[in-house]
Design a protein that fits this description.
There is one protein chain. The protein contains seven helices and two strands. The protein is globular and about 55 Å long. The longest helix is centred in the first third of the chain and has 26 residues. With 192 residues, it is mostly helical. The chain has a single domain, classed as Up-down Bundle (Four Helix Bundle (Hemerythrin (Met), subunit A)). A two-stranded antiparallel ribbon has the order 1-2. β1 and β2 form a beta hairpin. Pathway: Lipid metabolism; Phospholipid metabolism; phosphatidylglycerol biosynthesis; phosphatidylglycerol from CDP-diacylglycerol: step 1/2. It is a multi-pass membrane protein. One of its GO terms (cellular component) is plasma membrane.
Length: 192
């Protein structure tokens, strides 16, 4: 297994730790961050999320630079992103930080695209993520990271940057999903 694929698998392995930090009420205290507080456990979860999101960029860069792009990587990299983003968004809804309707739309798009990829894989076709999908992922990662940090550092100026970025991520999620299906409709049309 090459280095980019190892990074992808490490991202998947970080997800349970991330979930535990947000699910268990650790008594580690909190920091005052303007108009709210940032629990230490949430900070650590955000740090793990940011590291995991960074591995997404690093593995993609490394795979392209050294021609280490594999079918396994093309399949596992977007799956790892979907698992990480879905876990984070669901926990943000549970924490009453993200609106459930936005999370439902984002996860529905991710499941639809995964379904299309599975149909393609059954036909021996591997569908890689396009530039719109990468922009969607970047905006999702930024919004989630800021929301996990309880809008820090924007909490000091009372500017809802995290929620605004989540709405921007929603727009890119819808546009990229429509674009992905239009570009790959032949897979559904020609499947046996």
């Amino acid at each position: 297994m090459n280095l980019p694929n190892k990074l992808t698998f490490s991202r998947i392995l970080m997800i349970p730790i991330f979930i535990l930090l947000l699910s268990i009420p650790f008594p580690w205290g909190a920091w005052d961050i303007g108009n709210s507080e940032l629990p230490v456990a949430h900070f650590l979860a955000a740090l793990i999320f940011i590291i995991a999101a960074a591995t997404d960029w690093v593995d993609g860069y490394y795979a392209r630079k050294y021609q280490l792009v594999t079918n396994l990587g093309k399949f596992m990299d977007p799956l790892a992103d979907k698992l990480l983003v879905s876990a984070a968004l669901i926990l943000l809804v549970e924490m009453e930080i993200a609106p459930a309707w936005i999370v439902i739309i984002i996860i529905s798009r991710e499941l639809a695209v995964t379904g299309l990829r599975l149909v393609a894989a059954g036909e021996g076709i591997v569908l890689a993520a396009g530039s719109m999908g990468k922009l969607k992922t970047a905006t999702q990662m930024i919004s989630i990271a800021v929301l996990l940090l309880h809008n820090f550092p924007f909490s000091y100026i009372d500017f809802p940057f995290g929620i605004i970025m989540l709405y921007i991520a929603l727009i890119f999620t819808i546009i990229s999903g429509v674009d992905y299906f239009i570009k790959n409709w032949h897979v559904m049309r020609d499947s046996k």
